[in-house]
Amino acid sequence: MCGIVGAVAQRNITPVLVEGLKRLEYRGYDSCGVALHVDGKLQRSRSTSRVVDLESQIGDASLQGFTGIAHTRWATHGAPVSHNAHPHFSPNDEAARIALVHNGIIENHDELRDELRALGYVFTSQTDTEVICHLVDHMYNGDLFDTVQQAVKRLHGAYAIAVFCREEPHRVVAARQGSPLIVGLGEGENFVASDAMALAGTTNQIIYLEEGDVVDLQLARAWIVDADGRAVTREVKTVHAHTGAAELGPYRHYMQKEIFEQPRVIGDTLEGVTGITPDLFGEGAAEVFKKVDRVLILACGTSYYSGMTAKYWIESVAKVQCNVEIASEYRYRDSVPHPNTLVVTISQSGETADTLAALKHARSLGMLHTLTICNVSTSAMVRECALAYITRAGVEVGVASTKAFTTQLAALFLLTLTLAQVNDKLSPDAEAEFLKEMRHLPVAIAAVLALEPQIMAWADDFARKENALFLGRGMHYPIALEGALKLKEISYIHAEAYPAGELKHGPLALVTEEMPVVTIAPNDALLEKLKSNMQEVRARGGQLYVFADVDSRITSGEGLHVIRLPEHYGLLSPILHVVALQLLAYHTALARGTDVDKPRNLAKSVTVE
Ligand code: F6R
């Protein structure tokens, strides 16, 4: 999703802006650009290629300046073409007075565009951003800080913006509402960015702007007012942001690297867990866990599937009612709130707009006990929730989430055990046994990773298909959903997942000899039922690709391909089975030659609705 960097300094700021964009690349983008104040004029460079290409473009044009803004764009309004790339100018010509970058979606852009057109403004892009840029120009009163405070009152929707003006060379003004934005403080220079990582190496003194804040960045000050125009002091935090993408090492793609990192990051996520206690989730968790009698999980995409898996665990082990909701649905539907609910958000990035909005919605309904399972300790999600468990997956670069998912599952299993303990459903023996199994996970996952050559052989078959079905039962149904999501997002093969028992209620009509049907078949209580479902597929000529456990009595035969996972892993089995599915998706995508780490149309951090 879009990323913003801005700076006011007394040195050429281009390298800081370009480096910032490189650090934001992980979010996904389709164009990028930089604008600078150069000798009393606004100048810019934009590209529909990668940030490195923009960098050489800037070098060729010898573009340098002390004040500037930069952007990576993930297209929402208007195609990913150069004239839609940010920064936008107003007027959009040599005489440009205002330069602006934006992350978010302005809902009343049509109405504002009509109004500005009537005033003579000429629009050269399809973006909602150009509307804000002309609006600021139109309202400009000689004081950019004041102008932006007035202008944002006209905007409906979500935005983080950074703007500067030809007439005020040492000033950048930024504002946020619904999209993340931070301020970085330097010595005689100040910065703004979408996240602290963009400024790693430049400053670690970070202010997280709050909803409605507008900031005036000058060389020696960063002055913030809230939505009502009152001066406010926001806490300055020392943030040791990750320095971005790690080295690829021997791997071809970050996704492959991240799949193979799972034994280590699961170990990291469980580090320091010597016993089950509410304290794992933060100060005050013990009282909160005692008060709550149900759980509501809010998340999107892959994180939603980890929540779905946790529902099986929480209800069966802790005996606590658990509902899981897709955040973008929950935030807009009428639901029946219950004050004794533990609201759990799950998010890799901690910045997903829908999940944050769903959290706020739950709070507005009076559900105030909030906990997040999140991979980024400095994110909005962690700041917004009272309690947190930080997964230690490390920076996830591949757009398709892998290690974040399995570390979420590990954290959610800890939550399950904690709720069970609080509710007297966990004996000391059971606790010790579960913890032992959790500690053994890195070894068990490593054994699944060793199946890679067998999975690669299957991937060659899959690469020639255009459709695939995934079947699972019980807590492996969400794993089937996750396997199908991984396959479709990186290989572009249409894939759907069903609870195996649902097959005969409709999807069986799709099964022909051309249809590969991936089946997750752990040796659990549902195995015999699942075998009947597999027969239904074979009887229609469907090709079964079965991930069985070492001790499931399923053997390869005509139209039936079996890979055995080395251990049967009981309740934690989803964590092992999903790793096999990640490898299948990865190698299928590789065989099809897609851009595995940056699949088309997708972004890593989804900060718009
Ligand atoms: C899929 C994927 C997405 C994310 C979703 C939520 O591989 O990565 O479905 O899981 O966009 O993102 P987070 O977890 O950052 O809230």
From TrEMBL:
<keyword id="KW-0963">Cytoplasm</keyword>
<keyword id="KW-0677">Repeat</keyword>
<dbReference type="GO" id="GO:0097367">
    <property type="term" value="F:carbohydrate derivative binding"/>
</dbReference>
<dbReference type="InterPro" id="IPR029055">
    <property type="entry name" value="Ntn_hydrolases_N"/>
</dbReference>
<dbReference type="InterPro" id="IPR035466">
    <property type="entry name" value="GlmS/AgaS_SIS"/>
</dbReference>
<dbReference type="GO" id="GO:0005829">
    <property type="term" value="C:cytosol"/>
</dbReference>
<feature type="active site" description="For Fru-6P isomerization activity">
    <location>
        <position position="604"/>
    </location>
</feature>
<protein>
    <recommendedName>
        <fullName>Glutamine--fructose-6-phosphate aminotransferase [isomerizing]</fullName>
        <ecNumber>2.6.1.16</ecNumber>
    </recommendedName>
</protein>
<keyword id="KW-0808">Transferase</keyword>
<dbReference type="InterPro" id="IPR017932">
    <property type="entry name" value="GATase_2_dom"/>
</dbReference>
<comment type="subunit">
    <text>Homodimer.</text>
</comment>
<feature type="domain" description="SIS">
    <location>
        <begin position="285"/>
        <end position="425"/>
    </location>
</feature>
<dbReference type="Pfam" id="PF13522">
    <property type="entry name" value="GATase_6"/>
</dbReference>
<dbReference type="GO" id="GO:0004360">
    <property type="term" value="F:glutamine-fructose-6-phosphate transaminase (isomerizing) activity"/>
</dbReference>
<dbReference type="InterPro" id="IPR001347">
    <property type="entry name" value="SIS_dom"/>
</dbReference>
<feature type="active site" description="Nucleophile; for GATase activity">
    <location>
        <position position="2"/>
    </location>
</feature>
<dbReference type="GO" id="GO:0005975">
    <property type="term" value="P:carbohydrate metabolic process"/>
</dbReference>
<dbReference type="InterPro" id="IPR005855">
    <property type="entry name" value="GFAT"/>
</dbReference>
<feature type="domain" description="SIS">
    <location>
        <begin position="458"/>
        <end position="599"/>
    </location>
</feature>
<dbReference type="InterPro" id="IPR047084">
    <property type="entry name" value="GFAT_N"/>
</dbReference>
<dbReference type="InterPro" id="IPR035490">
    <property type="entry name" value="GlmS/FrlB_SIS"/>
</dbReference>
<keyword id="KW-0315">Glutamine amidotransferase</keyword>
<dbReference type="GO" id="GO:0006047">
    <property type="term" value="P:UDP-N-acetylglucosamine metabolic process"/>
</dbReference>
<dbReference type="GO" id="GO:0046349">
    <property type="term" value="P:amino sugar biosynthetic process"/>
</dbReference>
<keyword id="KW-0032">Aminotransferase</keyword>
<dbReference type="GO" id="GO:0006002">
    <property type="term" value="P:fructose 6-phosphate metabolic process"/>
</dbReference>
<comment type="function">
    <text>Catalyzes the first step in hexosamine metabolism, converting fructose-6P into glucosamine-6P using glutamine as a nitrogen source.</text>
</comment>
<feature type="domain" description="Glutamine amidotransferase type-2">
    <location>
        <begin position="2"/>
        <end position="220"/>
    </location>
</feature>
<dbReference type="GO" id="GO:0006487">
    <property type="term" value="P:protein N-linked glycosylation"/>
</dbReference>
<dbReference type="InterPro" id="IPR046348">
    <property type="entry name" value="SIS_dom_sf"/>
</dbReference>
<dbReference type="Pfam" id="PF01380">
    <property type="entry name" value="SIS"/>
</dbReference>
